[in-house]
Amino acid sequence: MSEVTARRAEERDLDDLRAHQPRPEIDLVGQRFEEMAKETGILAVAEHEGQIVGSGFLDFVDEALQPEVKNLWIYPEHRGLGAGQALWTWLEVQARDKGYDEVFLSVAPDNAKAISLFLQLGYAPTGDHLIIDNPSTHVVADPDQVSMHYAIYRKSLRAY
Fold it and tell me: Domain named N-acetyltransferase: which ranges (predicted)?
């Protein structure tokens, strides 16, 4: 099996990313690319055999959770290749290279698959929560279980 790699997104990637984004009506890909142009974040893509298989974003805006890994999305047909881990590792290195000692993420408490990955990657729950004004149903198996808050996790980057 060939390796999954991660890199900074480029303008040439936008059509592919938009075609695969989970909520095209909000064009999160376009928003994140604009934020990267303003240097308030980094949009990354994961590639496998020359094909984009996912993306993630490192946000430098929220002072309480800075930097925060957000919007990790692995295309469903490419899950299980290690793309999530490749993106997380690459984004963490970017945060460390910018001088940060830790990195954060927030996740719906019902998103068991994501939480399992985060724990494997060395993240630990802080016990803090982020209130969500407009919760999303696409991150949980049962739309009736949408959470009105996200749990905050953190990871030290000092071991890098």
Answer: 4-153
